[in-house]
Design a protein that fits this description.
By secondary structure, this protein is an all-beta fold. The protein contains no helices and 6 strands.
């Protein structure tokens, strides 16, 4: 079941895969973010297509993630 998150603190950029968000899960209250979730930004609604976690210093998952996003259009 996909979830809806309002993302307030992020950096957005493009790479070879497409539009990417860099965000901190704890700061944005989205610790359980998964592929397929809807992200509401100040510039529109996006679908999380792929999520890549940064490694923490201890080797586990860190709080920062990169999220490949797709703009949700009227046809989605």
């Amino acid at each position: 079941m996909s979830k809806l998150y309002t993302i307030e603190h992020y950096e957005k950029f493009n790479n070879e895969k497409g539009e990417i968000l860099s965000l901190n899960k704890k700061d944005n209250n989205c610790e359980d973010i998964q592929e397929g979730d809807t992200l509401i930004l100040d510039v529109g609604r996006y679908r999380a297509v792929e999520i890549e976690h940064f490694k923490a210093f201890n080797g586990g998952k860190g709080q920062n993630v990169l999220v490949l996003i797709k703009l949700i259009t009227i046809n989605d």
